[in-house]
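can u pls check wat happens w/ FE2/S2 (inorganic) cluster
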Amino acid sequence: MRESDPRESEGRLPTVDRRGFVRSLLGFSIISTIMGVLTPIIGYLWPPARSARGGGGRVLVGTLTDIPPGQAEVLPINDKPVIVVNTQDNQVRAFSAICTHLGCVCEWEDRRQFILCPCHDGRFNALTGAVISGPPPSPLPSVEVVVEDGDIYAGGA
Ligand code: FES
């Protein structure tokens, strides 16, 4: 049986002895280690819900006001960068923004109206995704895009 601490009877808080402190520290370390191992396993088995643009289906990417004629935007759709182009004659197209050369993310060349890979100056046609010039070996893969009542939807199964 443990001897009572005279300070406890005086109404003061009990002190923690060295052994108790080490046990608490050891217990905290064991719990932290277990949580550190279990957290990624639980995250793998039950992944968090995807964001609105990552569900795998068609996604509302904006409106014709957001992307007016002659403009384009690179957006994350289903966890991949997609460039949505609204050409000067109001034709909306979408392509994977991952360059077919070495995988850089393409951007919109506003002044000259084409899709540009800034890494090695690869250039792609805004209507077809075909290579205009530079080292890319193949066109940008197209992404399904639909305009309904001014809303632009991209992606799909
Ligand atoms: S990675 Fe795009 S041109 Fe090289």
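The CA atoms of residues 29 and 36 lie 10 Å apart.
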